[in-house]
Amino acid sequence: MPAKGKHRRPKTLRLTRSIAVAGTGGAALALPLMGAAGAHAATPQSVSEKAVQSVASVQQTAGTKAAENNSGSRTYTVKSGDYLSKIADDQNVEGGWKKLYADNRAAVGEDPSLIHPGLKLSIGGKAKAGSAESSSSEAAKPSRSTQSSQPAEASKPAEASKPAEASKPAESPSSDASTAAQAAQAAPQAAPAASHVAPVSGAGVGTAYKVAGSMWSSGYHTGVDFVVSTGTPLKAVGSGTVVSAGWAGAYGNQVVIKLADGYYAQYAHLSSLSVSAGQSVTAGQQVGLSGSTGNSTGPHLHFEIRTTPNYGSDIDPLSYLRSKGVAL
Question: What is this structure's pTM?
Fold first, then answer.
């Protein structure tokens, strides 16, 4: 018989505690397992994405530096008094002025003597625009080895929890801006319209300005003679208005233009005229053809710069043109 005042614990309570402990232990064991499974599914995916983005960034930076190093060119700004052969010598251009002209033909134009202050020339060759773009496009693609290194178990949960677009590496906006800037820099710059040009292209100087002699009524040569054959096109050295076009005695057929800055340009001994008095002209526009009319010993262009439209107000024409950026 049981003793008085003492109670025995029911067996059901011991079983309940055992079950509770076991349940608690089971929960304690289950939670780490579930966390481990979740970590096994998520960690390789996030590590892989970071690896892809890191590789893309390194490849993009390397491609940009390679594009800059491969161009090897620099820019030179033309100054007053420059001409291509002088620039080629000063800048140590391999191939001389002809190579410099070939690299900058789009900016200089058809006449290599018509460079002007402010014109930008490429020294050392043209920049290549293709390398930077190809390197950035390769950087945007994840490598096969990086993709294949992802465990199959990790890729399945990622596909189930993320849209297909989210699995691709994000494209960097700075990459597009950098590529566009490099392409714009590599593109050849259009040459600005020259305000003044030489009166005739590629001609040598014969009789210089102010050479003394009894053959001239003033006692000296009032202009400069360019040695050209009959029929060579003559150009307006700047924009202005034709004030005289026709026969002028000893000067033969002549054209006189009042330039925009107030000076006057005279062309003498022409074989034919292309403009008439009162007509507006622009720099480089044809005004006539060279010849040997009037008091002339042979085909040439007698060219003057004057302060008035009349004889005797002459100044040094070559110094005037060079002050306007014309290479002679």
Answer: 0.44
